[in-house]
Amino acid sequence: SFISLEKDIELMLQSKGYNETVVIVDEDMVKVVSNDTIEQADATIILDIVVSETNYEPSQIKIVKFDNIDL
After folding, report:
1. Is residue 66 predicted with pLDDT exceeding 90?
2. In this predicted structure, what is the pLDDT of residue 53?
3. Measured in Å, how far apart are the chain's first and last C-alpha atoms?
4. What is the spatial distance between Cα 51 and Cα 41, in angstroms, rounded to a whole number?
5. pTM of the model
6. Phi, psi at 46, each rounded to 5°
7. Distance between CA atoms of 6 and 35, rounded to whole angstroms?
8. How far is Cα of residue 24 from the mean position of the Cα atoms in its chain?
């Protein structure tokens, strides 16, 4: 289920120090919502984690800052 996948990704992100993230997974996309400021280096780490944990392509992964989220 997507819920367990979301939790797994969140735990992986927390292990890398990204504690303020919420992961939303559906058939087409993974959205990582963060309260932290995401620099390019952070985005690369987050992408690597999501790609390694899922079958999604980088183009299907969106990283957004919580304050400008567009649900």
Report:
1. no
2. 92
3. 21
4. 15
5. 0.86
6. -65, -45
7. 17
8. 8
